[in-house]
Amino acid sequence: MSDAQIVELAAVTKRYDGALAVDAISLKIAAGSYCCLLGPSGCGKSSTLRMIAGHEDVTDGDIMIGSRVVNDDPPAKRGTAMMFQSYALFPHLSVAENVAFSLRMKGVGRDERLGRAAKMLDLVSMTEFADRPPNQLSGGQQQRVALARALMTEPSVLLLDEPLSALDPFLRVRMRSELRRIQAELGITFIHVTHSQEEAMALADMVVVMNDGRIAQAGPPREIYNAPRTAFVARFIGGHNILEDRGRTITLRADDIDVVPAAEATDAHRRATVSEIEYRGPDVRLGLETDTGESLTAVMAERAFFDRPLSPGTSVAIGWRPDAVHELAHEA
Prior knowledge:
The protein has ten helices and 18 strands. With 332 residues, it is of the alpha+beta class. The strands form four sheets. A six-stranded mixed β-sheet has the order 6-7-8-3-9-10, sandwiched between helices. Strands 13-17-14-15-16 form a five-stranded antiparallel β-sheet. The chain has helices spanning 45-53, 95-99, 101-105, 110-123, 139-151, 169-186, 197-203, 221-226, 231-237, 302-307; strands at residues 7-16, 19-29, 34-38, 60-65, 68-69, 80-83, 157-161, 189-194, 206-211, 214-219, 240-245, 248-253, 258-261, 270-279, 283-290, 295-301, 315-319, 326-327. Helices cover 27% and strands 33% of the residues. The chain folds into two domains: 7-231, Rossmann fold (3-Layer(aba) Sandwich); 240-327, CATH 2.40.50.140.
C-alpha cells in the first residue's frame, strides 16, 4: 500500500453556475489520519470530497496532496481512490473480478491481478465469497467488495462518500469497526463524508463540521462534543442544551443536568416541569419545560431514574456544576 499523504486545502471555493457550494475553506488533514466531513445536506461536504478526488473542478484556491498541488491532475494521477455511496459493482463479474477490474483495465495479467485481489479480499474478510456474483451478497458484503476494489489501486488517500448510509443500523455499527480496523492496518489517510454524528464520533481522529459551505469547527471528536464553538455545532452534534445564563449564551450537556423533585431543591439554577420521558435502555431521557419557557433535555442513568422515578407533569428543580458550563461564541 502507498505511503499516507497529508491533504491540505487552501481557501478552496466551489461554485455551480454562480451558486456558492464551498466558501474558501482551509483545512489540513494529517497523513495517516481518519477525517470525517460532517454536516447536513447541502453543507458542501460532498463537493469538497469530489474536489479532492478530482471529480469536480476547483473554482478557486488550491488542493495539495503531499507536497503537490493537484488542482489540474486527473483523478488517476492524484494517488486517491473513491468509494461511492452506490457500490456500482459489475453484475456480470465475480467478486474477485470486480475487485481486480482496475488492474484488468491497466493490462495486468489475470494471475497477477487475481492474486492481488485475493489479498484485498482477505483484508476485508471476503475470501470465501470470491467466486460469487454481487447479487448473491448482502449489502454489507457488497460494501466490503467495493472497499477492496477501491484499495486495489494502492492509494495514499481513500475517499468515502456516505459509505454506510445504505446499511441497516446493526450493520452500520459493525462496518464502522471494520473501517477503523482497515484504516489502522493500512495506515493511509481516510476522508469520509457523513451526515451521521454518531458515525463521525466513532470513526474520526478529526471531525470537520460544515455548514453553508464553510467549516464551522474542526477538531478531535471529544473536543467537538465537549467544547462546541457555536450554537449550530452544539445543536448539530446533539446531546446539548443551549440557554441564556447571566447575559451569555451557554451550552450544557444533557447528562450534566441534575434533576431532583422541586421540594428537595436547595440551590437550583432553574425550576421546571417534566414534559416527556423516554426510556432508552442504559439511560432515560427527560424533556423539561422551565418556568421561563425554555425546553431542555436531561439524561439520567437508568438505575438512578428508577430508584426515584419521575412522571410527566412532575415539578422539578434542575442544576449543574459550574465546570459543566461551556460558553458559546456569537455566530456571524
